[in-house]
């Protein structure tokens, strides 16, 4: 601290209008931790800890005295130090509205528009939208899109969120699905055409529903909600900015210093103070948004003892327009830079602002709005990241930096090839401070373009980025000066010096382009083992982007020198176009309730999710939101860093020496026989003892006073290893070592005879990558000792309450009746919380029992991704025999899955893959074998659709290859082999009520498929660098647990004397609307409003021996159990209803109570007509019924970069008679988007040593708002009741995911067109996911032919395909 300076060490800020003063602030504490732990404002969530998901979004407000204006901006509370909000106002989701007072317009819309499912990330989205409205009371959809970058959702597919908020924008009337009852889009469709010609047969009374004719259609409707009922947004009613912050100036002008145990935080107010601090602490880190240092501290275990925040130093936050450009203080935020440059672009001649335009375009895709609001231009430069988005632009522009030190004074540095000296290093000296950045104007004869290619278009780090600037000699097309800067091609941002030198003086023509691409490859070599991988793709991108630059400049020159330069062709023009946001639109169609249905009967109505309003206000409680118990402790895992090794020693001494640490637990704390767990086979150690079998395996558990202390201590537990061979990482490794659990086989007919009788036989293989669940709520559990008899209460974010209870009891050595597992709700699960939770809920129970204190654990995102596994990667090898007409005669498939280090559910996943692999295709001769491979990866587990997505995409590849071989339309091949009712599957189950052809015909009609196929062909014939593809895919999906005993369910209904009803059942609510549907079922049977029925939690002391909430069966199973229990109640009330027919529910309940009649009932259901399935004998009926559907998807592909956009998707899904169309449509859309991620974006990368390299949203990309189809139409098949489930409904959770295969095959079709244009075979292998890398490298052309194969010479690759 500078001498003779008055400082403040008391933190002062406002939260939701209330003043907070704290004189004991630890600078390491983030705003999120402070809000949740100290202020108990738990609506703001921890989703990732790196500013990549938006769950922690809050609004900060400050008073700008120069402009006399309050500035509002959203930030990521998980990164913002609480010290940084000194003198600011913080608004959280709790501060804008509640269910107890009034809802804000934003909260109401996201809830009523069905934009919330699991609800965990809903507060973050609410706060992003709220901040937008505070800045722009009537925003555009484009502004809405900008504010939502950096905000992720895994459940709700984004469409209803945008539709719900559309009414608050200037685009309110646009698009479909507007929510109004007189929607013009609905009027434009004749319902008879929409539904097609339907035929059916009469059914009977079953499952509580009297069914009419199959195919008999009620009126179609699209009204999921009525937008006209929404309260209008009134800006005048917003929370008032604290007047004290306007009046008082001391909090802005005072020098602030906060000292913690390990870190001291300074906020100087003058440049002199800053320079003095840097002289005294040259290694101090200067932070503005903490967006880089925060990540380093959390994920790289860095510790920076001195932090300096320069945001109150005038020189560093100043923006100055000069004669030659704009000078930005180094602490100016990226959002301010956006605003400044946009004003410059709007007011100055176009030629003068070409650098500015390029920066604006880059910033659009730079992280999320919350990051841009906090991060500064200086941080971007000084962190010296080799993949910085701005540094290539600044280098190409020749930006000039002003640096200053106390001793050395001022110097100016041009950002050129000498600026970066190595990885994360530059020429600025430790004692110097970056003061300002000067960004120059361009001249009339100059052109400037920036490029970025990433895995996902919005909010993603670059794979390769570039800044390109060319200046021409006066009145000439000869190059005077060329600057080419690239990121992602070396340990630093680099300039292509030889290319720049060689091309100077040359004319801007095709020979320059040809020479330039060759020179760039020499300038930018890349080792085959380079960090980041994708070596050939990255090299291809450098020359592809240069080609785009060449075309862009040539197009401008052709306007200036038409006699010298040919204008761009239409195809070349499309290659230069930048992506523009187009607000999505769509229509959702479903069957309206029949005439005469009572207004209080909720079945078939789009009822709002039962917890939606609590989601939107932050009142919904998740495990980690629960109030702390007295004496509660927090736990952190100690994980293996080796994939296969002996444990030589475990040294926890240093960890136990840290103040606040209460204990360390490992295998020594349990008898050997109780250290084994597993859902099917107990083949997994709870704590690794003698050896580890994967990276991320649990070795120990540190328990401490708080989470930060536990995590810090866990990092210093020392493990010594000795590697064991072999280390099996990939499926290919497993095949080589024959490492697998018992293979499964299904045989139908005589396959070899089928091949002999076939006119043609083809073979092939395909790899399908795995997938991370990426539920927004990571694993969270709380174990509370009951205090007597060794009992334990476990509050768990699990899909499997009974399984958790069973494992806790077994490891603690107590009977099940002493352990209760409670589940309130889950912030998403998708299968990832079915079995893997036991690796956390059980260890903390061990610690809680030993210490006799409550123990809680909540994983960080990177820990969760390392520990818990995901969807199984698959390798499919197939052989098919067929006739010349395309009829299948014989099919043989071998499927290999990467199961990881323990069996878990890998056998069951493979079983479902074998059963569902046929999709919708007949074949009398089949032989399919599945090998669940045992490897040294974390155990893979259940994931939505359970092996079927991997198997079906392989089958569809096989089908498409048959069509290609016969030169037939693939649709024709599909229809020739498509199942119909009465056909028998390869597992001997007869198909009943098979509606797949109806779904197909309807979606083909609704999508105008045949006409659009022709339009796609016409587009492709006139476009060389941009291609389109369109694909129609059908779906069949079996519903039922293979293991017969799992097909059972229980429920408990309790009616209280005031007439209110408490309902319990064995299923868990994880966003799929299960509780909502159960309330609807109970409401219909009991004939009371849904408002009188409440579900509190799922608990093993209410409903015992429950089946896991999985396989899309919970509505079927628990719906029937609830129906059974409610029917019992109604039967007991019948005498009182009969004796008082004019009475009401309360009267009958009161009469029964006084007559001593039980008003509670248990319901039970076991699925009739199924018998499980035996793979050894190929006997049994595994499925209760089948779901059917079909989809048409059209995509557009950039052949030069591999980027793709989904232009339109149409889905028709058979969900029977929908219990709740809003929930079911939500499940259809959400599953489809998760499938889109699986097949196109989401790529898990492992090192050759088995280390997961993609451990958070920064490196692992799930779909974002920009990835939804631009037009997304969903129609629920009408007139298709299902007599085998409650009220004639069908499951919807999993089946629609498989319809995303239509995206994959549309992409493949587009790529095939590109290949054909370039003279390459349109028949090619494309593995899943179809990432930008795979797409670009499959679009072979003259540029990719220049790329030499990346050959490893005794080097290890950066990553391997597992």
Automatic annotation (TrEMBL):
Q: Where is the FAD-binding PCMH-type domain?
A: 258-444
Q: List the residue ranges forming a coiled coil, or say none.
A: none
List, alphabetically, the Pfam families matched: Ald_Xan_dh_C (PF01315), CO_deh_flav_C (PF03450), FAD_binding_5 (PF00941), Fer2 (PF00111), Fer2_2 (PF01799), MoCoBD_1 (PF02738), MoCoBD_2 (PF20256)
Q: Which UniProt keywords apply?
A: 2Fe-2S, FAD, Flavoprotein, Iron, Iron-sulfur, Metal-binding, Molybdenum, NAD, Oxidoreductase, Peroxisome
Q: How many cofactors are bound and how?
A: Binds 2 [2Fe-2S] clusters.
Entry binding sites for [2Fe-2S] cluster 1: 48, 53, 56, 78
Q: Which reaction does it catalyse?
A: xanthine + NAD(+) + H2O = urate + NADH + H(+); hypoxanthine + NAD(+) + H2O = xanthine + NADH + H(+)
Instruction: List the Gene Ontology MF annotations in alphabetical order.
Output: 2 iron, 2 sulfur cluster binding; FAD binding; iron ion binding; xanthine dehydrogenase activity
Q: Does the keyword Iron-sulfur apply?
A: yes
Subunit record text: Homodimer.
Protein name from the UniProt record: xanthine dehydrogenase
Q: Which organism is it from?
A: Penaeus japonicus (Kuruma prawn)
Gene this chain is encoded by:
XDH
């Amino acid at each position: 601290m500078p001498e003779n300076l008055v400082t403040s060490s008391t933190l002062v800020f406002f939260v939701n209008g209330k003043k907070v003063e704290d004189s004991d602030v630890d600078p390491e504490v983030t705003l999120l931790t402070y809000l949740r732990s100290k202020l108990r404002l738990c609506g703001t969530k921890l989703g990732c800890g790196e500013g990549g998901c938006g769950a922690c979004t809050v609004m900060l407000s400050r008073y700008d005295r120069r402009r006399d204006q309050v500035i509002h901006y959203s930030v990521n509370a998980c990164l913002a130090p609480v010290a940084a909000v000194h003198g600011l106002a913080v608004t959280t989701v709790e501060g804008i509205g509640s269910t107890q007072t009034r809802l804000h317009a934003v909260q109401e819309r996201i809830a009523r528009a069905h934009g919330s499912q699991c609800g965990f990330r809903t507060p973050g989205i609410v706060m992003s939208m709220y901040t937008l409205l505070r800045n722009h009371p009537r925003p555009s959809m484009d502004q809405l899109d900008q504010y939502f970058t950096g905000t992720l959702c895994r459940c709700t597919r984004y469409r209803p969120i945008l539709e719900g908020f559309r009414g608050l924008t200037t685009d309110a009337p646009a698009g479909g699905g507007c929510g109004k009852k007189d929607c013009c889009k609905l009027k434009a469709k004749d319902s008879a055409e929409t539904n097609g010609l339907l035929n059916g047969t009469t059914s009977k009374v079953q499952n509580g529903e009297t069914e009419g004719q199959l195919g008999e259609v009620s009126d179609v409707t699209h009204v999921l909600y009525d937008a006209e009922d929404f309260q209008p947004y009134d800006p005048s009613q917003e929370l008032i900015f604290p007047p004290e912050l306007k009046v008082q100036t001391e909090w802005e002008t005072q020098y602030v210093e906060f000292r913690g145990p390990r870190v001291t935080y300074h906020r100087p107010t003058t440049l002199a103070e800053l320079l003095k601090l840097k002289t005294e602490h040259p290694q101090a880190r200067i932070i503005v948004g903490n967006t880089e240092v925060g990540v380093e501290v959390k994920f790289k275990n860095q510790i920076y003892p001195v932090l300096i925040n320069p945001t109150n130093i005038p020189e560093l936050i100043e923006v100055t327009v000069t004669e030659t450009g704009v000078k930005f203080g180094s602490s100016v935020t990226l959002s301010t830079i956006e605003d400044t440059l946009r004003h410059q672009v709007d007011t100055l001649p176009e030629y003068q602002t070409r650098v500015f335009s390029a920066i604006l375009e880059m910033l659009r895709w730079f992280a999320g709005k919350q990051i841009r609001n906090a991060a500064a231009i200086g941080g971007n430069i000084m962190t010296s990241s080799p993949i910085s988005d701005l540094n290539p632009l600044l280098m190409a522009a020749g930006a000039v930096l002003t640096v200053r030190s106390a001793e050395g004074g001022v110097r100016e540095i041009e950002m050129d090839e000498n600026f970066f000296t190595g990885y994360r290093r530059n020429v600025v000296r430790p004692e110097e401070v970056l003061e300002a950045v000067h960004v120059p104007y361009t001249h009339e004869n100059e052109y400037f373009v920036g490029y970025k290619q990433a895995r996902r278009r919005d909010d993603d780090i670059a794979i390769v980025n570039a800044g390109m600037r060319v200046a021409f000699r006066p009145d000439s097309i000869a190059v005077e000066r060329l600057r080419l800067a690239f990121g992602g091609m070396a340990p630093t941002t680099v300039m292509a010096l030889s290319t720049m030198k060689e091309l100077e003086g040359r004319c801007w023509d095709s020979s320059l382009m040809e020479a330039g691409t060759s020179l760039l490859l020499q300038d930018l070599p890349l080792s085959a083992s380079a960090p980041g991988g994708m070596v050939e793709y990255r090299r291809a991108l450098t020359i592809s982007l240069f080609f785009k630059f060449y075309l862009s400049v040539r197009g401008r020159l052709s306007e200036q020198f038409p006699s010298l330069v040919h204008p761009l062709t239409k195809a070349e023009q499309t290659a230069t176009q930048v992506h523009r946001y187009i607000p999505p639109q769509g229509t959702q169609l479903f069957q309206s309730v029949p005439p005469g249905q009572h207004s209080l009967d909720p079945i078939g109505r789009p009822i709002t999710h039962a917890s939606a309003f609590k989601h939107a206000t932050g009142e919904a409680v998740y495990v980690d939101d629960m109030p702390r118990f007295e004496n509660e402790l927090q736990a952190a895992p100690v994980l293996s860093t080796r994939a296969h090794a002996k444990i030589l020693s475990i040294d926890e001494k240093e960890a136990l020496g840290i103040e606040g640490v209460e204990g360390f637990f490992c295998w020594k704390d349990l008898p050997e026989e109780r250290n084994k767990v597993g859902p099917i086979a107990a083949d997994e150690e709870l704590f690794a003892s003698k050896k580890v079998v994967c990276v991320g395996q649990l070795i120990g558990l540190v328990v401490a006073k708080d989470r930060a202390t536990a995590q810090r201590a866990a990092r210093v537990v020392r493990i010594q290893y000795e590697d064991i061979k072999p280390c099996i990482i990939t499926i290919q490794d497993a095949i080589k070592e024959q490492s697998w659990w018992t293979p499964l086989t299904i045989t139908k007919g005589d396959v070899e005879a089928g091949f002999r009788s076939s006119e043609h036989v083809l073979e092939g293989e395909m790899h399908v990558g795995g997938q991370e669940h990426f539920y927004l709520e990571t694993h969270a559990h709380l174990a509370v000792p009951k205090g007597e008899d060794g009992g334990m209460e476990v509050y768990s974010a699990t899909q499997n309450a009974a399984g958790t209870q069973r494992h806790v009891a077994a490891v603690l050595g107590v009977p099940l009746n002493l352990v209760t597992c409670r589940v309130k709700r889950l912030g998403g699960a998708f299968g990832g919380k079915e079995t893997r939770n036991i690796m956390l809920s059980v260890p903390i129970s061990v610690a809680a029992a030993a210490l006799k204190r409550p123990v809680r654990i909540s994983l960080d995102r990177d820990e969760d991704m390392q520990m818990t596994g995901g969807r199984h990667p698959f390798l499919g090898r197939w052989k098919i025999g067929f006739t010349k007409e395309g009829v299948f005669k014989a099919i043989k498939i071998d499927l290999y899955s990467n199961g990881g280090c323990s069996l878990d559910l890998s056998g069951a996943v493979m079983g479902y893959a074998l059963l569902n692999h046929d999709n919708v295709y007949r074949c009398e001769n089949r032989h399919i074998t599945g090998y669940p491979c045992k490897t040294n990866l974390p155990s893979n587990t259940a994931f939505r659709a359970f092996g079927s997505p991997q198997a079906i995409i392989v089958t569809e590849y096989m089908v498409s290859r048959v069509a290609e071989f016969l030169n037939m339309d693939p649709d024709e091949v599909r229809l020739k082999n498509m199942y119909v009712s009465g056909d028998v599957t390869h597992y001997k189950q007869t198909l009943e009520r098979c509606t797949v052809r109806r779904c197909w015909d309807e979606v083909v009609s609704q999508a105008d498929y045949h006409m659009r196929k022709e339009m796609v062909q016409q587009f492709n014939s006139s476009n060389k660098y941009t291609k389109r593809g369109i694909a129609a895919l059908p779906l069949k999906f079996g519903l039922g647990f293979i293991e017969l005993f799992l097909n059972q369910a229980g429920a408990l209904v309790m009616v209280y004397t005031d007439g209110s009803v408490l309902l319990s059942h064995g299923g868990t609510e994880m966003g799929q609307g299960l509780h909502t549907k159960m309330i609807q079922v109970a409401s219909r049977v009991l004939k009371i409003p849904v408002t009188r029925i409440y579900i509190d939690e799922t608990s093993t002391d209410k409903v015992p021996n429950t089946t896991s909430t999985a396989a899309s069966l919970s509505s079927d199973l628990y719906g029937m159990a609830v129906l059974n229990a409610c029917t019992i109640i109604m039967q007991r009330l019948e005498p009182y209803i009969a004796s008082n027919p004019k009475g009401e529910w309360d009267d009958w309940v009161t009469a029964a109570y006084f007559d001593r009649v039980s008003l509670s009932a248990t319901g039970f259901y076991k699925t009739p007509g199924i018998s499980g399935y035996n793979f050894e004998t190929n006997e049994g009926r595994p499925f209760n019924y089948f779901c059917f559907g079909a989809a048409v998807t059209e995509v557009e592909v950039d052949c030069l970069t591999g980027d793709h956009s989904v232009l339109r998707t149409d889905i028709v899904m058979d969900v029977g008679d929908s219990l709740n169309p809003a929930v079911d449509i939500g499940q259809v859309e959400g599953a489809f988007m998760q499938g889109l991620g699986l097949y196109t974006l989401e790529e898990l990368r492992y090192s050759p040593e088995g280390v997961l390299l993609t451990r958070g949203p920064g490196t692992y990309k799930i779909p974002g708002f920009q990835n939804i189809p631009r037009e997304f139409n969903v129609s629920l098949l009408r007139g298709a009741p299902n007599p085998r489930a409650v009220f004639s409904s069908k499951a919807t959770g999993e089946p629609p995911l498989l319809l995303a295969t239509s995206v994959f095959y549309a992409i493949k079709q587009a790529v095939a067109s590109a290949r054909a244009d370039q003279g390459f075979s349109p028949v090619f292998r494309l593995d899943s996911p179809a990432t930008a890398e795979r797409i670009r490298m499959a679009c072979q052309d003259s540029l990719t032919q220049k790329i030499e194969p990346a050959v490893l010479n005794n080097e290890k690759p950066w990553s391997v395909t597992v």
